[in-house]
Design a protein that fits this description.
This protein is of the alpha+beta class and 108 residues long. Helices cover 36% and strands 31% of the residues. It starts with a strand and ends with a helix. The relative contact order is 0.32. It has 4 helices and 4 strands. It has one domain: Alpha-Beta Plaits (2-Layer Sandwich), CATH 3.30.70. Helix 1 runs antiparallel to helix 3. The chain is flat and about 50 Å long.
């Protein structure tokens, strides 16, 4: 089952994050991921989460595909660039749904 990875973060070090970004797109694709959306923070409308500058939404073929990206030993030199280049990182996984019935049914 497909999952979405929601990435919210601030840029801490531009060069470090560029080192990550230059290579990460191809690696994400190679591990079964696809960037669905990129965004720059506009405004807080509601909620208690501190705003982050960047949004990246990645669709993964499965949670196993996501984990293979995170844990691939060949990428051990890649992930530190993301960590050094970003700050206030929020990384959440969401199951892909076709509609809200499974959630609404669980609330009955």
């Amino acid at each position: 089952m497909a999952v979405y990875a929601l990435n919210l973060f601030d840029i801490a070090n531009r060069e470090e994050y560029l080192n990550y970004a230059r290579r990460s797109t191809a690696e994400v694709q190679a591990h079964g991921g696809k960037v669905v959306s990129l965004g720059k923070f506009r405004e807080a409308v509601k909620g208690d989460i501190a705003p982050r500058l960047v949004l990246i939404l990645v669709e993964w073929e499965s949670v196993e595909a996501f984990r293979s990206y995170c844990c691939d030993p060949k990428l051990a030199d890649l992930h530190p660039h993301r960590e050094a280049g970003s700050d206030n990182y929020v990384w959440h996984l969401f199951d892909k749904l076709e509609d809200l019935r499974p959630i609404l049914k669980a609330c009955e």
